[in-house]
Amino acid sequence: MRPDEAALLEKHGIKPSAQRVAVAEFVLHTDAHPSADEVWSRVRERFPMVSRATVYNTLNLFVEKGLIRQLTLTGGRVVFDPNVEKHHHFIDEETGRIYDVPWEALRVSRVDDIDGFEVHAYQVVLRGKKRSRRRRT
Amino acid sequence: MRPDEAALLEKHGIKPSAQRVAVAEFVLHTDAHPSADEVWSRVRERFPMVSRATVYNTLNLFVEKGLIRQLTLTGGRVVFDPNVEKHHHFIDEETGRIYDVPWEALRVSRVDDIDGFEVHAYQVVLRGKKRSRRRRT
DNA sequence: TCTATCTTTAGACTTAGTCTAAGTAAATGC
DNA sequence: GCATTTACTTAGACTAAGTCTAAAGATAGA
Fold first, then answer.
1. Which of A9, B62, B126, B128 is 20–30 Å from B48 (CA)?
2. pLDDT for B94-119, tens place per residue?
3. Chain-wide mean pLDDT for chain A?
4. Substitution target from A56, A69, A117 for chain B, most B beta carbons within 10 A
5. Are B35 and B42 in contact (CB under 8 A)?
C-alpha cells in the first residue's frame, strides 16, 4: 500500500483501504481505458481475494469523488479514464482502442449557441485509423 | 406490411419479411433513440409473437445495411438512431434523453490535423440541460 | 410439388453489473 | 484495553442486455 496513493485517496475524501489502494495503483496509472472487469482481473493478480463487488464499488466511488471518469464511447462498453481534464477521444476502428486527444488539438465553435440547450460539457469523439509511428509500436 | 417500408428494405438489399417491416415501421420513424429492448416491446404490441432474437438480428442487419445507426453515448446504453446523416448529439443530464443536433449548428476545426490519427468520422457529444420551450412541452 | 435456402422461434447461455446477508476490520467511547 | 458501532469486503444470488443454438416455418426455384 503505497503512501502516495493513500494520501491521494484521503485528499479526495476516500478512506484508503488496501483494496482501494490496489485499484487506485492500477486505474490511476493506465491510459488503456480499461473496463471494470479488466481492472478486476489486473487487481487480482496482486490481490487474489478481492471481490468483484469491491472493484465495482471502488470504481464507482472514484468516479463520484472525481478521481476518474466513466466513458461509454462504443459498443456499449463502459470504461474508465484517469484523465479528468477536458479532452477529446479517438477510437481506432480496427482495434477498438481509445486514445486521448488534447483539448487544444481541436476547436469547437458556437457551442453555447445551440437553440434550446444549455451546454454544461462537451467533447469530440473521433473515429478512424491510428497511423503507425516510425520508431515506436 | 406497408409497401413503402418493404420497398425501402429491398432498396437496401434486405428481404422484407413481416417481422422486419414491423421493426422498420417503428425504428425508422422515431427520434426517441430507443434501445433494442424498447424496440422489441413496441413491436410486440402489434406483433406479439415476435422473438427477441429476431428484433436484435433485425436491428443489427439494419445497422449493417446502413438504414440506422447504433449509438453508445452514456451509461453503457446502446440505442438506435434512424438519422444516418452527419449530426451531433445532446444528452439531457437530468432525463438521459438524447437529442439530435444539426451538423451545421457547430463547427469543429483542425480535425484532419491530429498527429498520428487518420480521422474517418467524428461527432460532438454535448451534455447539459434542455431548456423548456415556451409553447411546447 | 420437392428441395434448398432463408428466417423466425423459444429457450439456453454469456457477460456486465447490482444487491444482499454475513463476516472483517477499523474507529469511537469509556 | 475492551465493547460497541460503523464502515468495508466477501461470495454468491440475482438481473438485464445480448448472443447462440437447434428446430420449426416460410419462401423461391427447378
1. B62
2. 999 999 999 999 999 987 778 789 99
3. 92
4. A117
5. no
Q: Where in chain A is the domain with CATH 1.10.10.10?
A: 3-66
Place of cell 433513440: B33
pLDDT tens digit string along B1-49? 455 889 999 999 999 999 999 999 999 999 999 999 999 999 999 999 9
What pLDDT score was predicted for residue B1? 44
Q: What number is the average pLDDT over the span A39-55? A: 95
Question: If one looks up domain B3-80 in CATH, what number appears?
Answer: 1.10.10.10
Helix, strand, coil percent content, chain A, rounded in steps of 5? 35, 30, 35
Q: Where do you find CATH 3.30.1490 in chain B?
A: 85-128
Put simply, the answer to whether B107 touches A109 (Cβ < 8 Å) is yes
Q: Indicate where chain B has its CATH 1.10.10.10 domain(s).
A: 3-80
Rounded to 5 degrees, what are φ and ψ at B40? -55, -50
CB–CB of A55/A36 below 8 Å? yes
Residue B60: is it exposed, middle or buried by C-beta count within 10 angstroms (0-12/13-18/19+)? middle
User: Residues of A from 53 to 92 whose C-beta is within 7 A of strand D: which are they?
Assistant: 53-54, 57-58, 76
| Chain-centre distance for alpha carbon B104 | 19
Q: Does domain A85-128 have CATH number 3.30.230?
A: no
Nearest protein residue by Cα to C1' of nucleotide D27: B17
Q: Is the pLDDT reported for residue A3 higher than 60?
A: no
CA of B83 to C1' of D16 (A): 27
- The nucleotide minimizing the C1' distance to residue A56's CA is C17
